[in-house]
Structure of Isoprenyl transferase:
Amino acid sequence: MRIHELTPEERAVYDTLKPERLPQHVAIIMDGNGRWAGSRSLKRFLGHQQGAKSVQMVTETASRIGLPWLTLYAFSLENNLRRPRAEVNFLMRLLKSYLEGNVKRMMDNNVRIRYIGRTHELPAGVQDTMQWAAETTARNTGTTLTLALNYGGRSEMVDAIRGLVAEMKHKHIAPSHITEEDIHRHLYTAHMPDPDLLIRTSGEMRISNYLLWQIAYTEIFVTDRLWPDFRGIHLLEAIADFQRRERRFGGLGDNVLATDEEAEQYKIAVS
Ligand code: FPP
């Protein structure tokens, strides 16, 4: 942890947090780059460029507070098919130059970078840079920054089921023996804990096919702030909101009936 490197504003929010209840894994749907640019009469790509700055700033704050896992939805599989070709090409170049320009900072911040998604479908030159960045930062022990690239939650499940079925055939495992843990082992995220907190910027109340399996019990925080305006302090504010919630993991609150006798006292008329 490098709390002393937080800005005074970040430090003020951090000091309100309970250190024992910091999330282990924060996932973010980065949305609103296009609107950010549009509201300034700028071309959309300038919103993406500014969004890349937010990626850097938020990652560095995450590393300063010792957040172990940060997973950012960078390019969805569906969105990449729908965006104009020139914008997709720009995003690819932006990712490549982001990695080239930021590996040094990742080393300074002890950040390890990884990827999830059908990354083998990305342009070869981008894949080379991705691999170089992952290998260079592989031994860092601070925050693991995972970029979801060419990612879709349903296609992740398809890939997981393909892997699991192949394993079952190979090991002669009967379908009735499949467990949740078996599915987990075949997801792209097999090596990480599920997110505790999912943040979505730009006010949309949607999951957009992100980490569908993994967010079963995740707390969701939606902010109207557009991604290019999102900074480390907003990450800390989202964590503060998260800490004010009671997490139940599918369980119940403390107003449960304790015994059958207690239940007998309530003569419930259902008409
Ligand atoms: C949504 O904006 C955002 C994205 C396209 C994904 C995030 C991409 C970046 C932050 C660019 C750089 C990424 C890295 C990892 C360097 P949108 O175009 O959907 O916005 P809109 O909904 O306002 O149109």
Observations:
- The mean pLDDT is 95.
- Residues 34 and 44 are 5 Å apart (CA to CA).
- The first strand starts at residue 25 and ends at 29.
- The chain has one domain: 22-248.
